Amino acid sequence: MKPMSRKCEQFTDSVIRRMTRISLQYNAINLAQGFPDFDPPKELLDRLAEVSYQGPHQYPITMGAPNFRQALARKAGRFMGLSLDPETNMVITIGSTEAMVDTIFALTNPGDKIAMFSPYFENYRAQAIMADCEPVFIPLVPPTFDFDPNVIEDAFKTGVKAILICNPSNPSGKVFTYDELKTIADLCIKYDVYAIMDEVYEHIVYAPHKHTYMSTLPGMWERTVSCSSLSKTYSITGWRLGYAIAAQPLMDRIKQFHDFNAVGAASPLMEAAVVGLDMPDSYYEEFGAHYAHMKKIFTDGLTSLGIPFTDPQGAYFVLADIGPFMKPGQKDVDFCVEMTQKVGVACVPGSSFFNEDINNIVRVHFAKKDETLYEALNRLSDLKSKMA
Ligand code: GLN
Fold first, then answer.
1. What is the rounded CA–CA span in Å between residue 335 and residue 350?
2. What is the value of pTM for the model shown?
3. Which has the closest alpha carbon to 38: 277, 287, 367, 317?
C-alpha cells in the first residue's frame, strides 16, 4: 500500500497523556497530566444538572453559543482590559488545543517557521508539524528561565511567521514580565511576526508575579491571538471548552478552520459554563489562593525530602531534578515508568518538553487535594532506595 503521512514519523503520542494511562495501569497518583482531583465549583455542577434536562443537546452555533460568547466577552474583557465583541473577536473551541491548531492553520503556510521557547508544552511541536511548519526553538535557560533577545532576533531574521508563547508557562512556571513581553512584542512588530499566546494558566500566578496579556501591549492587538480555556480556571479539563480571542481580520480566518475542524464545542457544556464566566472577582482571588496553598504544601514537602526543584511563578508544575535518584545510564522516560510502578507516583519525563538534550528533569504537578499531595509526598520519601 502507499505510504501514509510522513508527518506521523516526526512525533509520537503525547508522553503526558501516555503517563496518565501508565498511572492508571499501576493505580498510581497521577502528578503527570495536569488536572485537579477536586470538584469544579458547585455553581457549575448545579447548572449542569439543570441543563441535562433543559438542553441544549443538539449542535451548537458553530462559533460558540451566543450567551457563552457574551459572558466570555464580559469576563475576558474585564481581565484583559479590552472591549471585546462577542461576534467578531472570539471563537469557542474544543479546548485551547483546538484554538491553537485553528490559529496555526489560519496564520501559516506550509514551510513557515514557528518560534517557540524550550522547554515547551509538547502539543506545540506536533501542532506545528501537523501544519507543515518548522518549529524553531529559543532556550529558556533554567533555573530562572531567562531568554536572550538576540536569539529571538536571530530567529526572526530567518523569516519566522509566528512566535508561540505559553504564559504563565507550562512546564517552567515562568511568568513573563511586562518588560520581557515588550521586548518580544517590539521584535514581533519589527520583523512582522504574529504572537500566538497560550494563556490557559492566566489565573494561576503566585505573588508578587502578575499576568500580562500580550494582546494589550502597544501595537500587539492586531497581531496577537490569545488562546485560553475554562479547563484550569474552573477545574473542568474534561469539558474541553477553549477559545481564541483576536482582532477580526485574524479571527475571521481562525473561524474558517474551526468550522471544519470542530463544527462546534459541546452545547450543553457551554450552557452550563456560563455561570462560571459570570463569577465575581472574589472567585479568582480564592482560586489563586487555593493554588498558592497547594504549591506551598508540595514545594515545602519536596524541600524536606531533599528533592531539588525550580519554584514556579505561575501555573501548577514544578521541574524536579531526578539526577540524584537515577541509575547510571537510565533514561528519564524509563525512570518515570519505573517510579510509577515502584513508588506509585506518576510524573512526566523532561525530555518531552526540552529541545535540548536533557535527561535529569521531571515535571510534577500539584493541582490536587491536600490529602493527595501529602500521600504523594509520603510515597516520594526515600526515593533513592525505592528506585535502587
Ligand atoms: N496542560 C496539561 C498538562 O500539561 C494537560 C495536557 C493535556 O493533555 N492536554 O499536563
1. 11
2. 0.97
3. 367
In angstroms, rounded to a whole number, what is the distance separating the alpha carbons of residues 311 and 112?
A: 35
Q: Is the CB of 142 under 6 A from ligand 1?
A: no
What's the CA gap between 176 and 128, in Å, rounded? Answer: 23
Give Rg (Cα) of the chain. 21
- CA 119, distance to chain mean position in Å, is 12
Alpha helices in the chain (DSSP H): 15-25, 42-54, 66-80, 95-107, 123-130, 149-157, 178-191, 248-262, 267-277, 281-305, 332-342, 370-380, 383-386
What contacts 346, CB < 8 A, 6 or more positions away?
19, 20, 22, 23, 26, 28, 29, 30, 31, 32, 336, 339, 340
Q: Are strands 113-118 and 160-166 parallel, antiparallel or unpaired?
A: parallel
Q: How far is the CA of 340 from the centre of ligand 1 (A)?
A: 18
DSSP letter (8 states) at residue 246: -
- Per-residue pLDDT tens digits for 317-355: 999 999 999 999 999 999 999 999 999 999 999 999 999
**How far does residue 266's CA lie from ligand 1's centre (Å)?**
19
Cβ proximity of 322 and 351 under 8 Å: no
Ligand 1 centre distance from Cα of residue 319 (Å):
15
Q: How far apart are CA 167 and CA 212, in angstroms?
A: 9
Q: What is the pLDDT of residue 12?
A: 87
Please give the Cα distance from 156 to 113 (Å, whole number): 9
Q: From the CB of 33, is ligand 1 less than 6 Å away?
A: yes
Closest CA to 197 of 166, 170, 176, 169: 166
CA 14 to ligand 1: nearest atom: 8
* Mean per-residue pLDDT, 123-131: 96
What are the pLDDT digits (tens) for 130-150? Answer: 999 999 999 999 889 999 999
